[in-house]
């Protein structure tokens, strides 16, 4: 059934599909791990039961999201060997060690402390348990560090030498490879996006429960913390995005041309096109609506600064403009909607109406999943805008694919679609079900099954001294979690 398809296109669609699914879960778990760290820290500092209830409420959701992120991430690594073997062969000496560092540092750190975080509060004491939570949160950041370093090197490759067989070989300094020109900007922009994604999910959940009962103390705290995050971090993210855009203009100007819809060069100041229909065939933006010279002002800080267009770029080196043009506008548009809700919440807080303005709650609920849409749109802008290169300016995507026939790639793509929607659809449904329930006083934490986790080594522990109590349940009050126990 796939005989008439292009194997390269199917391979690209397959990787895009799997990485889009995967990106959703780390974008949520990175921010949620830090949120859990804050909640547990507040509980330890204040002793308020409310913070412990919220910690246990979100811990269950984090456990499922983290697991789905791990499973979906493992699948992608296999595609480097199946669909992109030429890329793996040529770029492996550079990106292979960086991805190995992600496993050896971040993944092992998260895996080592996740069990303590989920099950060990009664066993290790409050201080050590909080340290485990901090390590899990730090591990999610370290994971993002290494993966974004790999991606950034593919966008702005430096610090390498070309081998005799066309391999990219590490140069004398790994620091140049890790901290490549676009990496700091991409790291900050992506991590802030993950925090905002979590903030608006948390805010949406809080808004949902406030709409049902505005006196709910747990929902009030959830909503208030999320809106503080939105109000304070969205402006920082907009500034970080602007800096990232300027860096992209310096190192990947063709991507910026596609983002801006600049088919033509503008020697006396380029307009900022708000809307339009990209026409690659005719090399023009149809029905364009723009602000004269505003693009030059944003990108060059000069109204009359010249900006080159795609008319200076060969046709075979241009990305698909329509995809990049619209995905960029989706990302930016959602960012300004987030800013609007953040400022609206500040006004409501100043007026003493944060928990009373129903339309604010409805807006926050609608924007609950907006962070996921924004990060996927941003990823599409970054990756499609890099085309036709997989290592920018050096290795074309068409030259990086495995020599596979279309039916082989199409069959695996179809299998991925079916399995992903079945498995991750159920997981997402269960997360939404947990979110639908309101946090309660004395919230139950993550519990083991009756038999407990499977043990592959070590001695089997004896029966607990108090068989009537689950030894792995989180404490229901401050007094139950005594230090040193």
TrEMBL record:
Q: Name one Pfam family in it.
A: Cyt_bd_oxida_I
* Membrane topology term: Multi-pass membrane protein
Q: Where is this region: Disordered?
A: 441-485
Keyword Signal applies: no
Q: Compositional bias of type Basic and acidic residues: which residue ranges? A: 444-453
Q: Which domain of life is it from?
A: Bacteria
- Provide the transmembrane region boundaries: 15-36, 57-78, 98-120, 127-148, 187-210, 222-240, 323-347, 359-380, 413-432
What's this protein's family per the entry?
Belongs to the cytochrome ubiquinol oxidase subunit 1 family.
Q: What is this protein called?
A: Cytochrome ubiquinol oxidase subunit I
Where in the cell does this protein reside?
Cell inner membrane; Cell membrane
Could you list this entry's UniProt keywords, alphabetically sorted.
Answer: Cell membrane, Electron transport, Heme, Iron, Membrane, Metal-binding, Transmembrane, Transmembrane helix, Transport
InterPro entries attached here? Answer: Cyt-d_ubiquinol_oxidase_su_1
């Amino acid at each position: 059934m796939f005989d008439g398809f292009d194997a390269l296109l199917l391979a690209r669609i397959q990787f895009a599909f799997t990485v889009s699914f995967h990106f959703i879960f780390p974008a949520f778990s990175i921010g949620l791990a830090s949120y859990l760290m804050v909640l547990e820290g507040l509980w330890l500092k204040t002793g308020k039961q409310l913070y412990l209830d919220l910690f246990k409420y979100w811990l269950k959701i984090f456990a499922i999201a983290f697991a789905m992120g791990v499973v979906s991430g493992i699948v992608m690594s296999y595609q480097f060997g199946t669909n992109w073997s030429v890329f793996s062969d040529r770029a492996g000496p550079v990106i292979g060690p960086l991805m190995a560092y992600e496993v050896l540092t971040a993944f092992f750190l998260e895996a080592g402390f996740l069990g303590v975080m989920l099950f060990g509060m009664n066993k290790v004491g409050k201080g050590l348990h909080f340290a485990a939570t901090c390590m899990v949160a730090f591990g999610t950041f370290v994971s993002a560090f290494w993966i974004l370093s790999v991606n950034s090197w593919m966008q702005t490759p430096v610090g390498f030498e070309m081998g005799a067989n066309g391999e990219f070989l590490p140069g004398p300094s790994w620091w140049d490879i890790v901290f490549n020109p676009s990496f700091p900007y991409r790291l900050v922009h992506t991590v802030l996006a993950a925090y905002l994604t979590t903030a608006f999910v948390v805010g949406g959940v809080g808004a949902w429960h406030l709409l049902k009962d505005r006196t709910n103390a747990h929902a009030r705290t959830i909503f208030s913390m999320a809106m503080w995050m939105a109000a304070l971090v969205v402006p920082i993210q907009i500034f970080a995005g602007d800096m990232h855009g300027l860096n992209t203009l310096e190192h990947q100007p063709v991507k910026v041309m596609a983002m801006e819809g600049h088919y033509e060069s503008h020697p006396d100041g380029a307009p900022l096109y708000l809307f339009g229909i990209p026409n690659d065939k005719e090399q023009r933006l149809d029905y364009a609506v723009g602000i004269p010279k505003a693009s030059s002002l944003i990108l060059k800080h000069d109204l009359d600064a010249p900006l080159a267009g795609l008319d200076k770029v060969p046709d075979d080196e241009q990305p698909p403009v329509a995809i990049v043009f619209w995905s960029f506008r989706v990302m930016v548009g959602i960012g300004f909607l987030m800013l609007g809700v953040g400022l609206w919440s500040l006004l409501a807080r100043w007026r003493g109406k944060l928990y009373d303005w129903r339309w604010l709650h409805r807006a926050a609920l609608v924007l609950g999943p907006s962070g996921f849409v924004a990060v996927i749109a941003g990823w599409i802008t970054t990756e499609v805008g890099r085309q036709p290169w997989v290592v920018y300016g050096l290795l074309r995507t068409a030259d990086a694919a495995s020599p596979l026939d279309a039916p082989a790639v199409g069959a695996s793509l179809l299998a991925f679609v079916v399995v992903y929607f079945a498995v991750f659809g159920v997981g997402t449904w269960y997360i939404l079900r947990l979110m639908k329930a309101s946090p309660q006083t004395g919230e139950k934490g993550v519990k083991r099954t009756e038999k407990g986790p499977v043990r592959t080594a070590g001695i089997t522990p004896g029966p607990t001294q108090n068989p009537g109590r689950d030894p792995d349940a989180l404490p229901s009050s401050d007094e139950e979690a005594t230090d040193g126990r």
